[in-house]
Amino acid sequence: MNLERYKTVLWDWNGTLINDAWLSVAVNNELLAKRGMPPVSLEDYRKAFDFPVINYYIKLGFDLEAEPFERIAEEYIILYEKRRFECSLQEGANEVLDRFSALGICQNILSASHIESLKPFVDHYQLTPYFTQILGLDNHYAASKVQIGLDWLKKTTVKPQEILLIGDTLHDCEVAQALGADCIVVACGHQDESRLRSSGARVLSSLQELKDLLPK
Predict the structure, then answer these.
(1) Helices 69-83 and 53-60, interaxial angle, to 10°?
(2) Please, what sign has the CA dihedral across residues 156, 18, 174, 197?
(3) What are the residues whose beta carbons fall under 8 Å from the beta carbon of 150, sequence distance 6 or more?
(4) Hey, is 110 helix, strand or coil?
(5) Which DSSP helix (H) or strand (E) runs through 201?
(6) pLDDT at position 138, please?
(7) Angle subtended at Cα 34 by Cα 28 and Cα 35, rounded to the nearest 5 degrees
(8) What is the C-alpha separation between 28 and 94, in angstroms, rounded?
(9) For residues 199-212, b (16+ Cβ closer than 10 Å) or e, as one string?
């Protein structure tokens, strides 16, 4: 796979560049315990997590008729943001960003996170200078980032076949398909390898493996 032929890389953030699946599990388990519901393991989470995120809460057994999803999502964000800086970058993140940058390839973030929360999160890890644009949602409900991607595509001169999207979920594959872009997913984030392989996209075990595909 010749990664040097791309002009733009669109990076997912959560689970792809930042290692935060464990924190999502911890926060979900806090929400579940508060409601007298059983906890989930990281393995179970990665088998079940989905987009839009509301579907995952339905799988967990939340009664969304008794309690609006918006209230649960806001509670999740408050708990997540209290601890988010405990997360580390995925192993190899800096090196991969460096290598794409050295190749002169434009890099952007395309995330389902709230943009006002996303920007300081990226900045905390001193990654902001790598990115031409940081694109996120205007809410905390993590429904879809397809429209954000399509809006961005309308404004850029880059052709779809010159774009590589790198993510960690089946939703990233859906976004890439909507854009007409290529996609690589890494099996170190919010969904497990068996689910990712069902997409037909190139699946790598980690960013370390991606790094090995790039020239030094």
Answers:
(1) 100
(2) positive
(3) 178, 179
(4) strand
(5) none
(6) 77
(7) 95
(8) 29
(9) bebbbbebbbbbbe
Q: How far apart are CA 34 and CA 20, in angstroms?
A: 21
C-alpha to C-alpha distance for 170 and 121, rounded to whole angstroms:
23
Return the DSSP state at 147.
Answer: H
CB 6 within 8 A of CB 183: no
User: d(Cα 80, Cα 23) in Å, to the nearest integer?
Assistant: 7
The rounded distance, in Å, linking the Cα atoms of 160 and 180 is 5
Local structure of 163: helix, strand or coil? strand
pLDDT digits (tens, 9 = 90+) for 119-174: 999 999 999 999 999 999 875 544 568 999 999 999 999 999 999 999 999 999 99
CB 40 within 8 A of CB 26: no
Beta-strand pair 182-186/133-137:
unpaired
Q: Are 178 and 146 in contact (CB under 8 A)?
A: yes
Task: Quote the pTM value.
Answer: 0.94
210: three-class secondary structure by DSSP: helix
191: left (phi over 0), alpha (psi -120 to 50) or beta: beta
Residue with tokens 């920007």: 119
DSSP 41-92: -HHHHHHH--SSHHHHHHHHT--TTTS-HHHHHHHHHHHHHHHGGG-EEPTT
Which residues 6+ apart lie within 8 Å of 114 measured at CB?
77, 136, 137, 138, 139, 140
Residue 23 is which amino acid? L
